[in-house]
């Protein structure tokens, strides 16, 4: 068995999955509207900066967290953006599950990928 062939097979299966297809459709719908695209880009940028700060050991202020949460709430009223965020979360969860399965098979500790306090 060639591991690289199996990796390509997995990549094709992911690309053909309903979760990925829904993600692409939702992403394309957002990108067709310049305003939605800009709103989502702004949100993702702020979210990334907040996560980067946390990973660097800097605790974001309560105000920064609340501002991001408020922005998310506002964006969730936009059907196309909400559909994208939900599709992205579903596809990301599937990828995390795949990483976990692979990690368990080769005894790599990927517990950080699971939610805390389920």
Query: What is the tally of beta strands?
Result: 0
Helix tally equals: 5
The name of the CATH superfamily reads YheA/YmcA-like
Average pLDDT score: 92
By helix and strand content, what is the structural category? mainly alpha
Query: Poorly predicted ranges (pLDDT <50, ≥5 residues)?
Result: none
CATH C-level class is Mainly Alpha
| CATH fold-level label | YheA-like fold
What's the number of domains?
A: 1
SSE order and pairing:
Blueprint: H1 3-15, H2 18-31, H3 34-55, H4 62-76, H5 79-105
Helix pairs in contact: 2-5, 3-4
Explain this structure to me?
The protein is mainly alpha-helical and about 120 residues long. The chain has a single domain (about 5-115), classed as YheA-like fold (Up-down Bundle), CATH 1.20.1500.10. Helices cover about 75% and strands about 0% of the residues. It contains 5 helices and no strands. The protein has helices at about 5-15, 20-30, 35-55, 60-75, 80-105. Helix 2 (about 20-30) packs antiparallel against helix 5 and helix 3 (about 35-55) packs antiparallel against helix 4 (about 60-75). The chain is flat. The chain starts with a helix and ends in a 13-residue tail after the last helix. The model has no long low-confidence stretch (mean pLDDT about 90).
